[in-house]
Amino acid sequence: MLWIKALHLIAVISWLAELLYLPRLFVNWTEVSDQATRQRLVLMMQRLQKLGHVAMTLALLFGGWLLISWIGAVDGYFGQGWLHVKLLLVAGLISYQIYCGRITRGLAAGRNRRSAGWYRWFNEAPAVLMIGIVLLVVVKPF
Q1: Residues with Cβ < 8 Å from 69, sequence gap 6 or more?
Q2: Is the pLDDT of residue 75 over 70?
Q3: Which residue of 59, 86, 90, 126 sits 20 to 30 Å from the alpha carbon of 68, by its own alpha carbon?
Q4: Domain assignment of residue 83, given as a range
Q5: In angstroms, rounded to a whole number, what is the distance separating the alpha carbons of residues 125 and 142?
Q6: How far apart (Å, rounded) are the C-alpha atoms in residues 114 and 112?
Q7: In the chain, which ranges are continuous DSSP H helix?
Q8: So what's the pLDDT on residue 70?
Q9: In total, how many domains does the chain have?
Q10: Could you give the angle at which helices 81-108 and 35-73 cross, rounded to 10 degrees?
Q11: CA angle centred on 56, ends 103 and 67, rounded to 5°
Q12: pTM (2 decimals)?
């Protein structure tokens, strides 16, 4: 089971690396006007997102495996409130991933509705969710 936990953590770290860097590319796209640079940034966004989707899928698969294996091993595991909140925060990361895909497609088509400042603030969301998830898993406050 330790191997599965290690693989889960590696996948989560890879996924979060994508989620923390991708919005920075949105900022860069917004701040440049050169079309060649914008096309290069879109290509970087698309490639990064493909890797992020793989990492997210692996994180969810290994995380699900751990969750299923702990159901019988830990009495009342699903009754622990921290787990419910953690899964809600993970759903927030999945939603963030999906929304980043929408933004990437819009930027690839030359559409942008947001400022560079908005993307800078938007970039903070996965860090806040990550901090919450780590605290819940390690501290298990409730």
Answers
A1: 1, 4
A2: no
A3: 126
A4: 2-139
A5: 23
A6: 6
A7: 2-31, 35-73, 81-108, 116-122, 125-139
A8: 77
A9: 1
A10: 160
A11: 140
A12: 0.92
